[in-house]
Structure formats: structure tokens, C-alpha cells
């Protein structure tokens, strides 16, 4: 028995999320079908975490058990030949049998992209949220600082969360702004990229953070309101859940003890 770990990118536009569900048409379903077509085995894929319907991934990690003796360097090419064009296995590595893509993860990084230019970019409509009014980017950055460290994020998760507790640690949270593509030069116009890294994220957590930060950017809340919302531990105190399609799971990191090297099937996870 072997355990294979995959580094997977996908455009989530046409899927009901990563994890299998009764309605089908998930990224997990497609991966399991590709493996079954390749090896004849009915395997269960385990991802590092769920991504909601419409959410994308550049660095999702998933594992499965197999009896197949296919060399590790052939897995990615073989699976990509059997996957739809909007799912790509970027690399594969063989891992110890006690490795788990979710439980063994120590850091995850998400990205959310917003444009406050006057007009949306038609070619980015599936990946960038268009906010037609100017935003107070400095206030949004100030609000982000309240999220750093260990907190109970009950205010920033869906009531449907099934986790036993909502304490998580945010290591980094930045908002980078660059000029937008439509020539807008006014204050508050541009393309903003939120990058947030933590030891784990709750159901809808990043999207609720974004929805609340947008209210700060609109002047409906102050940056210090973020601290008060955290302390309330009440979902009703936070802002709306932002749209899913501007969110991407960028990277999942593991400790050196797992010895993952995407290029050679062993080593470290700096890919």
C-alpha cells in the first residue's frame, strides 16, 4: 500500500466545490474518476480543506491510498490526460502512510482580489470581484491588523460550521493595491489583493472577512470595529459573505518531517 500526495490547481467556476456531495460535479469527483480510469481502483481522495462552489485553487493538496506501482514521476502526466482542462495536477509525491493532507497542514494561504475601477475587466469577471465605488484601502489595511494572532473567529464563520471550536491563528494579512486596468487614477480606485495566511480557516471565514473589510472600505465601519466584531463572537455582528469567485487557495504548507518534494517525490514543500 502506498500513499500519494497531489498538488492540484483548478478553476472552480463550474464546480460545486472541492469535496464530494450528493449533487456531484465536484473537483474530488473528477480526481477520483481519473484515478479509477488510470488504475482501476475506487479510491477516496482527501483534500487539505474544502473550497466552496466557485472558489479556485492554485495549490490545493490532496492524498489517497493506492496499490498501484506506477512510478511517482508519471502520476501527474497520467492523471492530467484523464482530467478536464480546468483541473491540473501540478505534481505528485509519495508520502508516509500516516500523512494527512488536512490534519498534517500547518499553514494555508488564501488570496482574494477586488477591483474598484469604474468598469470591470470582462476577462477577469470569473476571478475578480468588481466594486464600482472607490474604497478606503488604508482603513482596510488598518482593520486587517486586528485579525493577526490567535482569536476565536466565531463572528467570521457560517452558522453551518461543524468545527468543535473556532479558535484560529492568523500569521499574516496584507492588502496590496496596484493601478487598475481601465485607466482610473482617482483616490480609492485600483486592484486590491488580500493575502491571508493562517494555521487553518473556518467555513466561509475568508469571504466573511472580505465582506466586513469592504464595509470598512466603504466607510460604513471603522477599522477598530473589526476588534469589536471579533470580541462579540457573533456572526450577526460581521458583514456579508463576499462572492466566492474572487477567492483562491494559493498554498498549503507542511512540516519538514513529511519530506515532500514535488519535483522528486520527496524533500520539502517549497514549490
UniProtKB/TrEMBL annotation:
User: According to its UniProt record, which residues of this chain constitute the active site?
Assistant: 52
Primary enzyme class: isomerase
Could you identify this protein by its name?
Answer: tRNA pseudouridine synthase A
Q: Which NCBIfam families has this protein been placed in?
A: hisT_truA (TIGR00071)
Signal peptide span: none
Record family assignment: Belongs to the tRNA pseudouridine synthase TruA family.
Binding of substrate occurs at 110
Q: How does this chain assemble?
A: Homodimer.
- Stated role: Formation of pseudouridine at positions 38, 39 and 40 in the anticodon stem and loop of transfer RNAs.
